[in-house]
Amino acid sequence: ALLSLTVLRLSSTLGRTFRVVKAAMQIPYLNEFLALLLPLIAVVLTFVHHGRATRGRLPAFRPLRGIAPLLQRTQDMVETGQPIHVATGSNEPGTIGASAETVASLLVAQRIAEHTARQGATMTVSSGDVAAHTAVRGTVHDAYKQSSFGGEYRGHEPLLVAHQAPSAYAMGVAQQLATEPPDALVLVGAYGSEALLIGGEAAQRHVPQLAGTTSLSALPALTLSTDATLVGEELFAAEAYLTDRAAPKARLLTHDALRWLVILIVIVGIAYQLANSLLALGLPSF
């Protein structure tokens, strides 16, 4: 009798819950509200994580292969007199604006510029897109100014090798590496299989390399030709590992939180559709 009563109460509760959900689905502009909810959550999480980063209450980050040697290189490069070269890649022809990989590479270039400026060393940056080139000139100059070395900035250090021509860009950077081998090469951004031209040339010159991209066509070539490769989302996390500033670390924590949120939404959505289909609940489908 007790079991039957429990089952009846559970059935009644589920029935009321489904009726509430069904009624909620009829609320005007519900889809628009849900579309705005995720950006709002992102803004709130950014402020929360920025506060955590400012107070130093950060979780332990797993190490990324190649970051520690690069940071050590920025400290020792003043003795060699050679610059670190950051190659930000080239977008495909017809690309409008900067890709996510290109933005990540610009942020990496900015953080490396901060390190080299503080050490009194030099760096060069090559771009394969006019928009990215304009942006990298500003970010590198800003990095020098924030490190109180604005007078040391040289406008010719960022180089425009080609515009939205990946193969031409790769051959141009490879030629530059052959002519003036840098102290280290950071090969991050939007790349395809042409990345092997750059990585292979640097490997022949025994130049230490750190690579990073999200392209499936470039990852095998970079993995074989470089010392360390950042795979996929590690490219977007690299900036936070190259600085002690709070904002990049807050962005990294927010990215992780949003990824878990999206995974949760997908799981709940699958469970909702399965329940609606198998139990014939009559709820709206998406």
TrEMBL record:
<feature type="domain" description="DUF6754">
    <location>
        <begin position="35"/>
        <end position="275"/>
    </location>
</feature>
<keyword id="KW-0812">Transmembrane</keyword>
<protein>
    <recommendedName>
        <fullName>DUF6754 domain-containing protein</fullName>
    </recommendedName>
</protein>
<dbReference type="Pfam" id="PF20539">
    <property type="entry name" value="DUF6754"/>
</dbReference>
<keyword id="KW-0472">Membrane</keyword>
<feature type="transmembrane region" description="Helical">
    <location>
        <begin position="257"/>
        <end position="275"/>
    </location>
</feature>
<dbReference type="InterPro" id="IPR046642">
    <property type="entry name" value="DUF6754"/>
</dbReference>
<keyword id="KW-1133">Transmembrane helix</keyword>
<feature type="transmembrane region" description="Helical">
    <location>
        <begin position="29"/>
        <end position="48"/>
    </location>
</feature>
